[in-house]
From TrEMBL:
Keywords per UniProt: Cytochrome c-type biogenesis, Disulfide bond, Membrane, Redox-active center, Transmembrane, Transmembrane helix
Organism: Chryseobacterium aquaticum
InterPro entries: Thioredoxin-like_sf (IPR036249), Thioredoxin_domain (IPR013766), Thioredoxin_ResA/DsbE_sf (IPR050553)
Domain Thioredoxin: 20-179
CC per GO annotation: cell envelope
Name this polypeptide is given: Thioredoxin domain-containing protein
Length: 179
């Protein structure tokens, strides 16, 4: 009797482990590991990535904004971000979504007309880029999903970081001071 109970408990534990690590999805209901088709492609060596080539290879200023399609303050600050981009043509600007679902992200980009004035960075190096921005090892797990966050980069270093909706005057004064 005890042997049957131990076998049953062992089988249940193994099944739970498999479900948790593999995951199943029934419509909008997900059990176990989330389907993450963006981060699934992540790479950790960003030195040869387009992100590194565009925003880290020289002493130009770069402004990177993390956002999400489900984040109302993120979407509300996009016009401010576009204004900063237009007012500082010598600074490189880009946004990077933390969305894990490419289809929802694509719908949000189209619905909010974000493709014209904003450079969108959602590369296969996304996880490594986020770890770089937060000064973690490039292979670290990302445990927080706080947005919006804006970073100013100069000489491959984060020289300014602000969490929350950006303020035009604050960011423009920082950019002017760093020129």
């Amino acid at each position: 009797m005890k042997k049957k109970v131990l076998i049953a408990i062992s089988v249940i534990i193994i099944l739970l482990f498999i479900i948790y690590n593999v995951g199943f999805q029934f419509g909008n209901f997900t059990i176990g590991k989330q389907y993450d088709n963006i981060e699934h492609k992540s790479k950790f060596d960003i030195e040869n990535s387009n992100f590194s080539k565009k925003y880290l290879q020289n002493d130009d200023l770069s402004v990177i904004n993390l956002w999400a399609s489900w984040c109302k303050p993120c979407l509300e600050e996009m016009p401010t971000f576009v204004k900063l981009k237009n007012d500082f043509p010598n600074v490189k600007f880009a946004t990077m979504s933390i969305d894990k679902d490419e289809k929802k992200l694509s719908k949000s980009i189209d619905a909010n007309n974000l493709t014209d004035d904003i450079t969108l960075e959602n590369s296969e190096y996304r996880k490594a880029i986020r770890n770089f921005l937060d000064n973690r090892e490039l292979k670290s797990l990302i445990t927080t999903e706080i947005v919006p966050i804006t970073y100013i980069i100069k000489n491959k270093k984060i020289v300014y970081k602000t969490t929350g909706t950006i303020d035009y005057n604050e960011i423009s004064s920082k950019l002017n001071a760093l020129k």
